Every structure is written in C-alpha cells, then in structure tokens.
C-alpha cells in the first residue's frame, strides 16, 4: 500500500473513500489480547467457546476495534493525528481466527469550526470486513481535523 501524506480538512470531501491494507488474525492473537484486556472464555478457550453465544472462538470486539483503528490510521493519516470526538460502534458479526480484515472508510460530513478556525469536525463511516465481505465492525465517528497551516502573508 502506498503511503499517503498527512491529510488536512481541505484535502477531504463528502463521499471520499479510503480503503486500508489488511490484517490476518489467528487464534494466538485473539487469546493474547483477551488474556490481557477481555478475559472471557469465548475469547480464550476454543472448547468452551463452542457452547457459547458465538459457537466458537471469537475475537473481542475491542480487539477488532484496535485492529480496525490501526488499519484506519494507515489508510487515512490525518495531520496532527486521528483525534476522535465521539461516535458509535457495533459488531454485527464475530471476528474469527483466520479472518483477514480490511477497513473501508467514507467521509459523511465536514463541518469547519466557527469558533476555532484552525480546525473542523469530520464524520466518518468505517466498516471492517472479513474475507467473506461481511461487516464485522461498523463505526461512525467524529474526528477533529486540522486545517492546512496558512503561510505568513508576504510583507
């Protein structure tokens, strides 16, 4: 994947899309993340997971979110960093061992700030897909995005 220069508010437009690279998930990654951050049996134990709500080992939604964030940041590097300002996240399907995830992002809204002229708010829809093309995570988020710095006026 080609590295993208950091993006400013002026570089974005409604309807613009970005597609990430991929990340392959395996059982060891799922269990390691769960052991540290979400120690539930359906994330840690394949046998116990078979009789769970998920019917098999499933990644924590927070693990899927962390992977999605990494892919998003690489696909859409915002100047000054990808600073979140709230949003909604859902996990319509579990992420499984062997899944190769990718993220598709779309700019939904751009609102330049009236009170802070050096930045604006951008609303994004980020969908994380498994290899079957199914959405395993949907996030609609607001982000603070800086405007391109103005060069000093020639004097």
Identify the notable features of this structure and list them briefly.
single chain, 155 residues, alpha+beta, Thiol Ester Dehydrase, Chain A, 5-stranded antiparallel β-sheet, 4 helices, 34% strand, elongated
Q: Can you give a write-up of this model?
A:
- The structure is a single chain.
- The chain is of the alpha+beta class.
- It has a single domain (9-146), classed as Roll (Thiol Ester Dehydrase, Chain A), CATH 3.10.129.
- 23% of the residues lie in helices and 34% in strands.
- It has helices spanning 27-37, 41-44, 46-50, 61-75, and strands spanning 17-24, 83-90, 100-112, 119-129, 135-146.
- Strands 1-3-4-5-2 form a 5-stranded antiparallel sheet, with helices on one face.
- Strand 4 (119-129) and strand 5 form a beta hairpin.
- The termini are far apart.
- The mean pLDDT is 93.
Topology:
Blueprint: E1 17-24, H1 27-37, H2 41-44, H3 46-50, H4 61-75, E2 83-90, E3 100-112, E4 119-129, E5 135-146
Antiparallel strand pairs: 1-3, 2-5, 3-4, 4-5
Provide mean pLDDT, rounded: 93
Beta percentage is 25-35%
What is the number of independent domains?
1
Helix percent band: 10-25%
Provide the CATH top-level class: Alpha Beta
**Class from secondary-structure proportions:** alpha+beta
According to CATH, the fold-level topology is Thiol Ester Dehydrase, Chain A
Number of helices: 4
- Principal-axis shape: elongated
Largest sheet: 5 strands, antiparallel
Distance between the termini: 42 Å
Strand order of the largest sheet: 1-3-4-5-2
Number of strands: 5
Low-confidence stretches: none
Name given to the CATH homologous superfamily? Hotdog Thioesterase
Query: Which architecture would the CATH scheme give at its second level?
Result: Roll
H/E order of the elements? EHHHHEEEE
Q: In angstroms, what is the radius of gyration?
A: 18 Å
């Amino acid at each position: 994947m080609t590295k993208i220069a950091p993006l400013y508010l002026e570089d974005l437009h409604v309807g613009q899309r970005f597609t990430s690279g991929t990340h392959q998930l395996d059982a060891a990654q799922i269990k390691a993340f769960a052991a540290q951050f979400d120690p539930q049996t359906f994330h840690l134990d394949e046998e116990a997971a078979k009789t769970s709500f998920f019917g098999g080992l499933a990644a924590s939604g927070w693990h899927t979110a962390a992977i999605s964030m990494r892919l998003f940041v690489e696909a859409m590097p915002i100047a000054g960093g990808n600073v979140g300002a709230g949003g909604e996240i859902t996990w319509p399907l579990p992420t499984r061992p062997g899944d190769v995830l990718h993220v598709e992002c779309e700019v939904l809204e751009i609102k330049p700030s009236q009170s802070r002229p050096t930045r604006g708010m951008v609303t994004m829809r980020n969908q994380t897909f498994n290899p079957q093309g199914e959405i395993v995570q949907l996030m609609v988020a607001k982000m603070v995005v800086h405007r391109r710095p103005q060069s000093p006026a020639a004097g």
